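Appendix B. Raw example, untouched.
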Amino acid sequence: MGQAGTPTVKTGYAPVNGLRLYYEIHGTGEPLILLHGGLGSTEMFGQLLPALAKTRRVVAPNLQAHGRTGDIDRPISYEALADDIAALMKHLGFEKADVMGYSLGGGTALQLTIRHPATVRKLVVVSAVFKRDGWYPEILAAMAHLGPAVAEQLKQSPLYQTYSRIAPKPGDWTVLVTKMGDLLRRDFDWSKDIAAIKAPTTLVFGDADSMPPEHIVEFFKLLGGGKKDGGWDGSGVSNAQLAILPGVTHYNIVASPSLAPTVLPFLDAPTPGPK
């Protein structure tokens, strides 16, 4: 147990799909799966994790080849990452949980909801796209170059500093960056699957994010939002919510003090019936 006032943190490794999937559990309450971004780890959540853990049992895994989870001989794909999280939930005995993912974690959370809909109670997607060409052209160009040369350049970054400190094999950094390049060069468009999502969903973006506002609005509409006036009685409010955080980029959104107060009221509200 932690000292008085210090939330208890439990850590472990779950044997899922050939991986030793590292996870942390912070706090108590209703379970919330929290999924980090590409080349990162749970460490990127800084103050967000403690804020969420005040009222939630936050389960924060490290995705394949990221952080404290080692790699296996398997490409990194959104579908495989999602299946890993479904298997982790089963390992931990969760039939259902709220899921919140940022960037790569947001794509993983979407695929978890698409592939394993019964496991997701509510969904929060932070700064992710529903199709590859949703990113700005300059972001797509940068993704196209991800490989060994960029891995070397990224050794100057805080992402690598964290990785080299916690990864089981820090020498695998180049493999991780190369596999992420392969993933990010792969085309996808999940429009039809997203339009069929039944779980109440909140989308959160920065107003200076890595995708144009048009993509964000299209995403919101796919989920049933933005179709009509909400009405005096709220009868026109959809199961989807949209938040745009001011003065926030793709790179600092998870550090924004606005993020936790934006998503917690949605997570804590009673689940609405089907509309």
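End of appendix B.
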